Amino acid sequence: MSPIRGTIVLLSLCMLAFFGAPAQTSGQEPTKNPGMSTDKPAGSAPAAAKPAFDPALLEPATLKAKAPAEFEVKFVTTAGEFTMKVTRAWAPNGADRFYNLIQHHFYDGASFFRVLPGFMAQFGMSAYPQVSAAWQQANIKDDPVKSSNKPGTVTFAMAGPNTRTTQIFINLGDNARLDGMGFSAVDEVTSGMDVIKSCYSGYADAPTSHQGEITNEGKAYLDKNFPKLDYILKATVLP
Q: What residues contact residue 43 under an 8 Å CB cut-off, 6+ apart?
């Protein structure tokens, strides 16, 4: 062996002793203990799945923000887009409730489960059973009727005095007879009434008698049993 080659070999051995063996470069993965993942430490819990809805919706009592005097809401649906304008003075309790529901995306995924041409288009049952359960008893007090239920106005559904929660209907005709029954309009549609009127109405009132199942199973029940219903993709308060 030449003196130069001997020197190179000696340096290589010194480097190996100091730095350790080089990493594998053949493309073959190092041997793993069968049944043991090397991605994370043993015993670590899997990451919790992020809920599809805003977790704040599970605590209705905390959603008490006061609505602005006026605000607009944009709805993007499977039938198209429409916009509402809310005037808080019409129905302050209803406007505050509506504002909080929109801000926390309660209506995202909600179906128009009751569409009766010339009468109303109704929605407001959550797509998620956990959310529906949380809001079942979250009633608000009635507001005096200050604006009539004329075409294009929007009103909370109710089952008697002080029973408004989350369900809303859009008047498709002149429903002034509802004024005397305590149905106070909260806002009105400012654009896209043609979109609302085009929502699928072939099931008429049929889904309404299944509100128990919708509450317990959410949108999955409607998708299975009433698959043609249009629904809300997203509802947001406009700047």
A: none
